[in-house]
Design brief:
423 residues; mainly alpha; Glycosyltransferase; three-stranded antiparallel β-sheet; binds (2R)-3-hydroxy-2-(alpha-D-mannopyranosyloxy)propanoic acid; glycosidase; Mannosylglycerate hydrolase MGH1-like glycoside hydrolase domain-containing protein; 6hp_glycosidase-like_sf; 6-hairpin_glycosidase_sf; MGH1-like_GH
Length: 423
């Protein structure tokens, strides 16, 4: 079984490779996406550390002067095939943007330092031969400085996201309340090439897209400078900030390997972990998101709120595990972890980030369970990741209860993480 999964995963990754990087899926996602590339590179590192390094190099080529790693690096030949694309962002006109490539102005969750450290660990000799860590350490430090500096819009020590796309969990119920006050009348005409590749019932609605475009326009037209005082979407997300803390710990490991002082990274991870406490919701037994514009914490249980299980020294481990295994999530019958509270009336096991199980999330939960010594449940999730991926042609996401496939197929991070589980 493991050989079959590995062979099929490798074939998907090979087919989705485009000279310098891997696209998330041919058709629906024709450019390079930031956090996808980290997951993809972790998988690639098992079969080709060299290619994993190229994947990250291509991503860092899009870094802005302020340190940000953009959500998307555009393939100039595919501008018609995804919206909003390079012609919407016109990034070269924005001060501080890279001039060799065109990118989005937004970002995605910071799983990059974590990925770089994992790629190094997969083959340290190869990594040293190519100076992989030396090459990337200062870029990662600048990326984190951007997030901890300009993005700490609430002054709480947590980074804010400024658009649902930055969460990676685009139409998560976490954003519903704030989305209500976002206008839907963007100046740009709504163009939905995504609907040529995916069922409309499995994608965000036209109304949501109007709001997504409105926010992206406003952020772009303010020079992507994070200084727009009245900007209406400023959210502290537990998933985003957990990955920042986990990545700070990876930077501490990278610094140690390079013989550099790394205590500041450990301190920073600790500060983020402590600041996250303000996002813990005892009655849900998990973390949630905070709206920085009015200080309210959203009362909804989503997969984002369980990812803090990855934090060492997590004080709510028992409660988080109880929530994971209780009726809101696994309930003794799920094959992979649902993205949204199964007891919620609007849980929909087929709709994008509003119920289905995603392979990257279950993979991160399995990583956390392994670290906590819950190896049986980690093995259960890892086994289902590989099996469901290979059986259903590497779907973007699945029904958590039946395993039925949804979204696009031959999806790269599904393939990469299925491959990873075979090692
Ligand atoms: C989805 O997001 C993009 C926008 O970034 C989209 O819906 O068009 C999300 O699942 C996100 O997490 C992922 O990085 C991206 C590409 O796979 O697709």
């Amino acid at each position: 079984m493991a050989e079959l999964i590995a062979a099929r995963s490798t074939a998907v990754l090979e087919a989705n490779w485009r000279t310098t990087h891997t696209v998330p899926a041919a058709g629906l996602y024709p450019h390079q996406w930031s956090w996808d590339s980290s997951f993809i590179a972790v998988g690639l590192s098992r079969i080709s550390p060299r290619r994993a390094g190229q994947e990250m190099d291509a991503l860092f080529a899009g870094q802005w002067d302020d340190g940000r790693l953009p959500q998307i690096i555009f393939d100039p030949h595919r501008d018609e095939d995804y919206a909003p694309g390079a012609s919407f962002w016109q990034s070269r006109l924005i001060p501080g943007s890279p001039k060799q490539v065109e990118t989005a102005g937004l970002v995605q969750p910071p799983n990059h330092a974590w990925a770089v450290w994992k790629i190094h660990q997969a083959d340290p000799a190869e990594s040293r031969r190519r100076s992989f860590l030396e090459r990337n350490y200062s870029k990662l430090v600048r990326w984190h400085e951007y997030l901890s500096g300009r993005r700490d819009r609430g002054g709480s020590g947590l980074a804010c996201i400024v658009h649902p796309w930055e969460s990676g969990t685009d139409n998560s119920p976490l954003w519903d309340t704030v989305m209500k006050r976002i206008p839907a009348d963007s100046k740009t005409e709504l163009n939905r090439p995504d609907l040529q590749h995916a069922d409309a019932g499995e994608r965000p609605s036209q109304k949501e897209y109007g709001k997504y475009f409105w926010m992206a326009e406003r952020y772009r037209d303010h020079g992507c400078d994070d200084a727009d005082a009245d900007y209406p979407f400023l959210m502290e997300d537990p998933l985003f900030n957990t990955l920042l803390a986990v990545s700070e710990l990876a930077l501490a490991d990278i610094a140690a390997e390079l013989g550099l002082p790394g205590e500041a990274h450990g301190d920073r991870a600790q500060q983020i972990t402590e600041a996250l406490e303000a996002l813990y919701v005892p009655e849900l037994g998990c973390y949630s998101a905070r709206d920085v514009t009015d200080g309210t914490v959203v009362k909804k249980a989503t997969i984002n709120g369980l990812i803090p299980l990855l934090l060492p020294g997590q004080v709510h481990t028992d409660a988080l595990l109880e929530t994971l295994n209780g009726p809101r999530f696994m309930d003794g019958r799920a094959l992979l972890v649902p993205s949204y509270d199964a007891t919620a009336v609007d849980h929909n096991p087929a709709l994008y980030w509003r119920g289905p199980a995603w392979f990257n999330m279950s993979w991160m939960v399995a990583e956390a369970l392994d670290r906590l010594g819950h190896t049986d449940q980690a093995a259960f999730l890892r086994g289902n990741i590989g099996r469901l991926a290979a059986e259903h042609n590497f779907p973007e996401y699945v029904d958590p209860w039946t395993g039925a496939a949804h979204g696009t197929r031959r999806f790269s991070w599904t393939a990469a993480l299925a491959l990873e589980t075979t090692y």
